Amino acid sequence: MDRNQIIGFSLLAALLIAYVVYNNNAQKNYEAEKRADSIAYAKAHPKPAIDSAAILQAQSADTLNDSLRNAMPSAYHGKAENVTLENEKLTLQFSTKGAFPVSALLKDFKTYGQKPLLLFNGKGNELSMVLPINQGSVSTGDLYFTPAQEARPDGGKALSFTSDLGEGKKIIITYSLLKNDYMMQCNIRTVGLPATNMTLNWETQTLHTEKDIANERTASQVYYRFMDGDHDYFTVTADKKEKLEKKTNWVGFRMHFFNSTLISQDGFMSVDVNSTTQLDSQHVAQNKASFVVAAKPGDVQTVDLNWYIGPNNYSTLKSYKMDLENMVPLGYGIMSFVKYINKWLIIPIFNLLSGFISNYGIIIMLMTLIIRLILSFFTYKSYLSAAKMRVLKPEIDALRAKYSDDQQKFGVEQMKLFRTAGVNPLGGCLPTLFQLPILFAMYYFFPSSIELRQQPFLWANDLSTYDSIAQLPFNIPFYGDHVSLFTLLMTASSLFLALYNKNMTAQDPNNPMLKYMPYVFPFLLIGVFNKMAAALTFYYFFSNMISITQQFIIQKYIIDEKKIHAQIQENKSKPVTQSKWQQRIEDMQKAQMERGKQMPKKK
Q: What is the C-alpha separation between 493 and 540, in angstroms, rounded?
């Protein structure tokens, strides 16, 4: 680079620096003049009509100095601080900007990692109301409030927030907690802000608290109850939207073991719900709901709400007598009838045993024994029917060989044999069918029971989620990345029981699929149960072991096949009274035979 180039570049740099300095000074002078004009205007107009939208937009602007800010009503300026309201169950943090809870700590629970359990915390959590003001609107979430805390006569605490919008307009929001309760009362009172209807916006982001976030997201659901008593739910997906147009009593955002529910005794006019599970690894799901609340005429208007923030404990939710217990999934869909088995049988037995036994693994074992004792009559009938079929097997085989070319005739003669011997061919099936509802009831009960949460038993450190004896370095499709020992034991005991039943039950050679189905079925379900609660897989394993023991004792020491054979032969000599059902079956078989005879034979 020569001398002329150096001089040229130096002059350009000097000009650039001079321009930047000049531009900065000019900008500062302009801002100072603008601030002076703003102050002069404020002094000349001490009581202007409040444009809430413009004020809220200008709160963070550089053009608004402290003098002008202080001249505004206190609702439009301040500092966001957290205030605590707590009782023996909850610790809630409220922000003075918006006057809504930004975090909820449940004192009686820990996360799976044994940290304090925060149901929600930080941004993404809000309860605000949109109010009309001066031909515009204002959201309480954008206003600043002055807090005041006081003790309640019943031992609880109350926290009030007041926001002064000027010109006699105020918003007072009061939250109250009883001494030992998960239900919080929320009272929103407005002065000088009359409206026909008001919009209430509620947003919640739930935190990851359990072992498997995938299971948490699968269990995330929105429940709601209408004022007419009807209720329903939907599962939160990647982007789920619902509009409830009937008057709604409450809307609950249910996680696996906890829920946050907003309740209105007067009812919400309509509700729009927008939920998603597309969040980061720290958050399970997000729920946004917009409620239309009917306002009563008058200068002072009040909205009363209840807000439940707590566990999905069936007894606790039921105590509020507003169907909140429906958020505990005890059976739904085509299996909704099993929820009554859970409510009237399983839960009472479980609560009775847990009242004096602390080990929940032992409670599951005792529950299994009690239930099997209740079903023992059906079990005995099933085994007795199987024994009768084994005794009749030689005669059935003889009929099958005699009518090998005519299956319809074989069916008719077989029914005659059953009728004369006094044997019900469905005697072994019906008792088993009566036991299936119990199995399905347990399928819903154990994964939903918060009492089992973080309760250890044997090698499982938490009965409410899957046990894992080995973590795989890879993921097996339809199985997972871990090995559940209870699931393996359940599968092995199911296979052993199927093999034992095969040796003790007469087989039908015309149905080969039935021969192998008991062995295939456990393997089809092993991937599903590998991710299920350890309490459930342990129950099925222990139930299988009881079945094997029960079957061995009954067939070895109670059922005497020689006596059964003698009784059958004696029955054959007695007059037979045919039931209507047997007569109907026989008539159908005869009609089918006649149709077969009338059909032209193929050449």
A: 9
Mean pLDDT (whole number) for 124-135? 86
Q: Is the Cα torsion angle 535, 538, 543, 544 positive or negative in sign?
A: positive
Q: Are 434 and 450 in contact (CB under 8 A)?
A: no
pLDDT the model gives residue 297: 76
Q: Is the pLDDT of residue 9 over 90?
A: no
Kindly report the pTM of this predicted structure.
0.77
What are the start-end ranges of the H helices in 424-553? 429-448, 485-504, 512-529, 534-553
Strand partners, 166: 169
Is the pLDDT at 594 greater than 70, yes or no? no
Domains by residue range for the chain, with CATH = 37-72 (no CATH), 80-328 (2.70.98.90), 339-584 (no CATH)
pLDDT of residue 427: 61
Longest Cα–Cα distance in the chain: 133
In the predicted model, what is the mean pLDDT of the chain?
80
602 or 276, greater pLDDT: 276
CB-neighbour burial class of residue 450 (10 A; exposed 0-12, middle 13-18, buried 19+): middle
Helices (H) and strands (E) in the chain, counts: 16, 21
Cβ(423)–Cβ(495) under 8 Å?
no
Q: Which residue has the tokens 């006699």?
A: 168
Give the mean model confidence (pLDDT) for residues 293-306. Answer: 85
Specify whether the CB–CB gap between 157 and 151 falls below 8 A.
Answer: yes
Per the structure block, which two tokens stand in for 498?
A: 């199927």
Rounding to the nearest 10 degrees, give the CA dihedral for residues 287, 288, 293, 299: 120
Could you tell me how many residues make up the chain?
603
Neighbours of 172 (CB within 10 A): 20
In this model, does residue 601 exceed pLDDT 80? no
DSSP letter string, 46-90: SSPPP-HHHHHHHTT-TT--HHHHHHS-GGG-----EEEEE-SSE
Q: How far apart are CA 501 and CA 555, in angstroms?
A: 11
Q: What is the DSSP letter of 506?
A: -
Q: Which of 56, 272, 76 is nearest to 171 (CA)?
A: 76
Q: Is the dihedral of CA 594, 596, 599, 603 positive or negative?
A: negative
Calculate the dihedral angle through the C-alpha atoms of 390, 391, 392, 395, rounding to the nearest 10 degrees.
110
Q: Is 567 exposed, middle or buried (0-12, 13-18, 19+ CB in 10 A)?
A: middle
70-79, 187-196, 534-543, 568-577: segment of lowest average pLDDT = 568-577
pLDDT at 351: 93
Better-scored residue on pLDDT, 116 or 555? 116
Given a contact cutoff of 8 angstroms between Cβ atoms, the answer to whether 220 and 235 are in contact is yes
Q: Provide the sign of the torsion angle of the four alpha carbons 312, 313, 314, 319, taken in this order.
A: negative
Strand, helix or coil for residue 134: coil
Q: Is 100 helix (H, G, I), strand (E, B) or coil?
A: strand
Distance CA 266, CA 344 (A): 31
Assess contact for 530 and 484: CB atoms under 8 A: yes
